[in-house]
Design goal:
The chain is α+β, with helices and mostly antiparallel strands. It has a single domain (50-110, 124-222), classed as Barwin-like endoglucanases (Beta Barrel). It contains 4 helices and 8 strands. The chain has an 8-stranded mixed beta sheet.
């Protein structure tokens, strides 16, 4: 007659504890794996990317414009500031979509023109809502090259092709040529900004290189 082996209570308890330990360890490993955070996405700064630099410059120009409006307010300043705040919000969306540091700001770099005396170049944004400065490029003759050494970026504003400026009054016509692709656009100044020339979205699209938000080599001429 065959005899079945039976386990005593102590052996049964030991086997159950062993199985629970193995199962629990496996569950711990799975939980640790599933709860592991994905690697953080890296963001690019203006120093790392031309796209990011262009967006940071556009953001800085709009911020400086707002500062100028608050320092020298007029009857339309509140509406202008609200409009530029909406533009800044859109630029931040573009920064995030492009993998740039959201909120990074940089002022438009403008190289001083050696043939002009230093006093004729006031700090950007000092004009407030006036948009016209005494002397300097604002008094340039038709057909003359202006804003020498300036980079060109976009204001982020919608509408028909147009420009904004802290040097030229509304109604001035400017021709902007991108030397990197030889594309040109002629636009009318319609508003004030914190830069010599900012193009709105439609005008910038006419001269931009694909994927870039900054024109480093630009020729700007006053044509009307």
């Amino acid at each position: 007659m065959s005899r079945r082996r039976t386990l005593g209570p102590k052996k049964k308890l030991a086997l159950l504890l062993s199985a629970a330990t193995v199962a629990g360890g496996g569950a711990f490993v799975m939980a640790t794996t599933s709860n592991a955070s994905p690697p953080a996405a890296t963001t690019k700064s203006a120093a790392d990317s031309t796209v990011c630099q262009g967006l940071a410059t556009a953001l800085g120009n709009n911020e400086k414009f707002i500062e100028g409006q608050r320092a020298n307010p007029d009857a339309q300043s509140e509406a202008r500031i609200a409009n530029r705040e909406a533009v800044i919000a859109q630029i931040k969306v573009q920064q995030e979509a492009s993998g740039c540091t959201v909120g990074e700001s940089a002022q438009d770099s403008q190289t001083a023109q050696p043939e002009q005396p230093a006093p004729s170049q006031p700090a950007q944004g000092d004009q407030g809502g006036q948009g016209e400065q005494a002397g300097g490029d604002g008094a340039a003759a038709v057909g003359e090259q202006v804003c020498n050494g300036s980079t060109v970026t976009l204001s982020g504003e919608d509408g028909a092709p147009a420009a904004s400026s802290n040097q030229f009054p509304a109604g001035t016509k400017l021709k902007v040529t991108n030397l990197d692709n030889n594309k040109s656009t002629t636009v009318e100044v319609t508003s004030v900004s914190g830069s010599c020339v900012l193009l709105n979205n439609a005008a910038f699209e006419q001269v931009r290189e694909a994927g870039k938000f900054l024109i480093r080599r630009a020729v700007i001429e006053k044509v009307g």
